[in-house]
Amino acid sequence: MPAIPLKDLNSTLKSAKKEDLPQVWLIYGEEFLYKGALDAAVNFLVPVEARTLNYDPLDGGNENVPKALERVNTYSLIPGVKVVALRDARIFYSKEDKGSLLEKTKSAVEKNELKKASGLFVTLLHRLNLKFDDLEKGKRRKLLGIDMDEEPAWLDKLLGYCEEKSVSLSAEASDAAGMIAEAMEKGFPSGHFLIVTTDTANKTHPLFKAIKQDGLVVDCSVPRGERKADKQQQEAILSQRKSTILSRSGKKMDGRAYRAMVDMIGFDIRSFENDLEKLVNYVGQRENITIEDVQSVVKRTRVDPIYEFTNAVTERNPRDILFLLNSMLAAGTHPLQLLTAVVNQIRRLILAKGFVKSPEGAAWHKGATYNHFQDKVMDALIEYDRALLERLQDWEEQLAPEDPEDAKTKPGKKTPKKKAAPKSDLTVVKNPKSPFPVYQTLKKSDNFTFEELKDALRALSNADILMKSTAQDPKRVLENVLFEICGLKTGNKS
């Protein structure tokens, strides 16, 4: 059966008979979405009255794979459909996923999801052939690949939790994926289903191909890139969740409040829903949710690695820069992609600093509140951009070649060819309907002088040349230029 996108799951279930559905399902992608898909599958397959005995969810650690297969092959006390779910499975992780596992573990700890973090951490230790006893103080960073001068607080917190809860490295199935593939070949009792959910699924893996051929694959993935198409998919999902919650609660939310919320949270469906529910309760009997409500209730929790990385650069925080740099390189991010992200951020800060030093920027001052920015600065910014575009248009018209037809009719007179107003990336305000990112950019620009920003751009240009035309280690080149931006001497990581 071919893989189906999440949006087709309900129609697939409605048009199918239980006995005709494949007995092994793989539901993968965005965690919040695949959990909803699992609920939909269980609701369809197992009647509520039989769920206590005929639905058996298990943690997705590889050590539980033999147990899951044993249970799906065991007849239930109550006749009928039986479902065994291997939730948050880690069967597709490999040693090469060390960076990704480490980042997901850190993210789970920061969200206080310590049980989930410990499961991911156990999988990481298995992949690295490590035991808890190997993680002696002073050796942890090197063994785990954390390039920081000190052990991060999140790691101490996680290890404390593992010790308190007596988390152990249970014997892990040596080939968990192979065991599932072998069990599929043998077959399961009629009416018994195995559903595997995971955030990571390698489409070239033999198990993925086997489930796609003989089972059912449900794709709940959402592209995390910055391309327009990726952003549109992310936007569609968040907008749909917003409409559902607001419709249910009888509330409304204006566009500025929604955009500020997305800017602060990023594409994190669960955090978005949780914070929107908080806002619904916060406004009480009031119908409209405003941007002021968002600022009062919502905290910035965005975990986009590129955003965090460039933010650490603008904050001139070398420790965070090192950790994020190593995490993203280990996860497969290309060094030039990281360099470009920093270049773009520095360019934005230069544009913002240009406004601040202009007559129109007199309304801005260090430490300005968001309300002051909206009331006094935003209109000045828009006027500054408008004047800049007009100057660019004047320059283009002056430099435009003479129109040959005009030259024939009016000899000796040069008539510049009229052009439409130029589109430029030199403006500070990219989207007037989303002012919060502009406010943040102005605040970040206060961490640098104009000369420091120009020096940073020159240093980044030199780093680009070194990375493209020499055999120097790209990671070392990045480290050197980033520490230079932080105001530290090259090679000084203290």
Give the strand line-up of the largest sheet.
1-6-2-5-4-3
Radius of gyration: 28 Å
Number of strands: 8
> Which percent range fits the helix content?
55-70%
Walk me through the structure.
- With 494 residues, the chain is of the alpha/beta class.
- It is 56% helix and 7% strand.
- The protein is built from 22 helices and 8 strands.
- The chain has helices spanning 9-14, 31-45, 51-54, 65-72, 98-110, 114-127, 140-144, 153-164, 176-186, 206-214, 228-249, 255-265, 269-283, 291-297, 305-314, 318-330, 335-357, 370-399, 404-409, 436-445, 450-469, 474-485, and strands at residues 4-5, 24-29, 55-59, 82-87, 192-198, 216-220, 252-253, 288-289.
- The strands form 2 sheets. It has a 6-stranded parallel sheet, with helices on both faces.
- Strand 3 (55-59), helix 4 and strand 4 form a beta-alpha-beta unit.
- Helix 9 (176-186) runs parallel beside helix 10 (206-214), helix 16 packs antiparallel against helix 22 (474-485) and helix 21 runs antiparallel to helix 22 (474-485).
- It is globular, with a radius of gyration of 28 Å.
- It starts with a strand and ends in a 9-residue tail after the last helix.
- 30% of the residues are buried.
- The model is unreliable at 490-494 (pLDDT under 50).
Which SSEs are present, and which pair or pack?
Elements: E1 4-5, H1 9-14, E2 24-29, H2 31-45, H3 51-54, E3 55-59, H4 65-72, E4 82-87, H5 98-110, H6 114-127, H7 140-144, H8 153-164, H9 176-186, E5 192-198, H10 206-214, E6 216-220, H11 228-249, E7 252-253, H12 255-265, H13 269-283, E8 288-289, H14 291-297, H15 305-314, H16 318-330, H17 335-357, H18 370-399, H19 404-409, H20 436-445, H21 450-469, H22 474-485
Parallel strand pairs: 1-6, 2-5, 2-6, 3-4, 4-5, 7-8
Helix pairs in contact: 5-6, 5-16, 9-10, 11-13, 12-14, 15-16, 15-17, 16-22, 17-20, 17-21, 21-22
